[in-house]
From TrEMBL:
Naturally occurring in which organism (per UniProt): Bradyrhizobium cajani
Name under which the protein is recorded: Homoserine dehydrogenase
Listed pathway(s): Amino-acid biosynthesis; L-methionine biosynthesis via de novo pathway; L-homoserine from L-aspartate: step 3/3; Amino-acid biosynthesis; L-threonine biosynthesis; L-threonine from L-aspartate: step 3/5
Keywords from the named record: Amino-acid biosynthesis, Methionine biosynthesis, NADP, Oxidoreductase, Threonine biosynthesis
Binding site for NADPH: K107
Protein family: Belongs to the homoserine dehydrogenase family.
Active site: K207
Length: 438
């Protein structure tokens, strides 16, 4: 009979406690599928006293993460503390250097130190599994790393942050404010400890960097990702998008272009009829455009304790089965440096919302500046706030003008809008949202 896999878990927050519970309640299923038992032998967390609703009797309490990572009884070290630095980094490195397998949900750690850690795993023979780091319960790492091993990838994109999708969905459907929706996301346990990490797009950027590495065989590099968050999105953008047949989503997009790999995170208008536009609430989705096959879209719960624990336990089950894949899908020596495609050369359609000063010549000035940059307009709508009636004060109030462009370059749009601002025909800053066609 094969001895059970002995697991040590560092971090007993919502996810850690759920992992302990799943290993206990699914023990028979896991043993059946892995061909051996899985047993939690030791744990560590900041507070020993905290009530977690799981039975830890008979489980050793290690003095700190490092002690747990190198504990002679532990075969598989599960890191659920989070954070790109210590103690997570030191503990994961120590476990790998000791030849143990590591399972982690820590996207920050992988986006920053993924290559260094994968090298340690490769050198000492342990597995480094991180399915839960991207899209929680969605098996997207396995899909890219193993399922599509024989297929070239041209683009991978998705809704990778549950908090942002939850906020945008509720803002759109219920007309609620950004702040109200964020508070609910925090209450429901979707948001990071510092929610600016979610809403400013950094959480998505880390996940995208990991996906890009798996998709394109590049060394994971968060610094190669262009990032914009959702805090500038106003209810009027969501309404205008709906009127024009689009929805706004925070997308992470990694795409192979002639200029290199473009990796970008920003609010994006997607056609309402696309699969990605149907994904609402905290749900995540990833679409992979593979060579010679139609796109594959994986949809599922991307945040929360149960969804994250589901992927962590599946990773532990792989270790129990003795499966060891190269962490980033290839031996380290086969991963190449990222050639970062400059964002200024990004090509695509744009949604532009301007607050135009309502006097003769404004529309002509805007059209001229766009034409100078060879930007062609697909549609243009001017929405007078009081239905076109003359302003009561006699003074021209600014009117929202919404433009959709045909495909153009980012730097052309930036130059045109800078010129429009210099012309003083608009109030405030233009709102720009990139359009992603499926
Ligand atoms: N804060 C993340 C999200 C949780 O909202 O998707 C999982 O990374």
């Amino acid at each position: 009979m094969v001895a059970p896999l002995k697991v040590g878990i560092a971090g007993l927050g919502t996810v850690g406690a759920e992992v302990v519970r799943l290993i206990e309640t699914q023990a028979r299923v896991l043993a059946g599928r892995s061909g051996r038992g899985i047993r939690v032998v030791a744990v560590t967390a900041r507070s020993k006293a905290k009530k977690r609703g799981v039975d830890l009797r008979g489980v050793e309490w290690a003095k700190d993460p490092l002690a747990l990572a190198t504990h002679p009884e532990v075969d598989c070290f599960v890191e659920l503390m989070g954070g790109a630095g210590d103690p997570a980094l030191a503990a994961v490195e120590a476990a790998l250097n000791a030849g143990k397998s590591v399972v982690t949900a820590n996207k920050a750690l992988l986006a920053k130190h993924g290559i260094k850690l994968a090298k340690a795993a490769e050198k000492h023979g342990g597995a480094l599994n991180f399915e839960a780091a991207v899209g929680a319960a969605i098996p997207v790492i396995k899909t890219l790393r193993e399922g599509l091993a024989g297929t070239g990838v041209n683009r991978v994109y998705g809704i990778l942050n549950g908090t942002c999708n939850y906020i945008l969905t509720r803002m759109e459907q219920e007309g609620l404010s950004f702040a109200e929706c964020l508070k609910d996301a925090q209450r429901l346990g979707y948001a990071e400890a510092d929610p600016s990490f979610d809403v400013d797009g950094h959480d998505t950027a880390q996940k995208l960097a990991i996906l890009a590495s798996l998709a394109f065989g590049t060394k994971v590099a968060q610094s190669a990702v262009y990032v914009e968050g959702i805090s500038s999105i106003a209810p009027e953008d969501l309404r205008a998008a709906a009127d024009l047949g689009y929805r706004v989503k925070l997308l992470g997009v990694a795409v192979r272009t002639a200029k290199g790999i473009e990796q970008r995170v920003h609010p994006t208008m997607v056609p309402k009829s696309s699969s990605i536009a149907q994904v609402m609430g905290v749900t995540n989705a990833v679409t992979i455009d593979g060579e010679g096959i139609p796109p594959i879209t994986l949809v599922g719960p991307g945040a929360g304790g149960a969804a994250t624990a589901s992927a962590v336990v599946a990773d532990i089950a792989d270790v129990a089965r003795g499966i060891r894949a190269n962490p980033f899908g290839r031996p380290i020596s086969h991963l190449h440096d990222t050639t970062k495609a400059p964002m200024e050369r990004h090509e695509g359609g744009y949604y532009i919302r301007l607050l135009a000063r309502d006097f003769p010549g404004t529309a002509a000035a805007i059209a001229t500046r766009l034409a100078e940059q060879k930007i062609s307009i697909e549609s243009i709508v001017q929405r007078h706030p009081n239905g076109g009636a003359a302003p009561a004060t006699g003074k021209a109030a600014p009117v929202p003008v919404i433009l959709i462009t045909y495909a153009t370059h980012e730097d052309a749009v930036r130059r045109a809008l800078a010129a429009v601002q210099r012309d003083k025909v608009i109030s405030g800053r233009p709102q720009v949202i990139r359009i992603e066609k499926n």
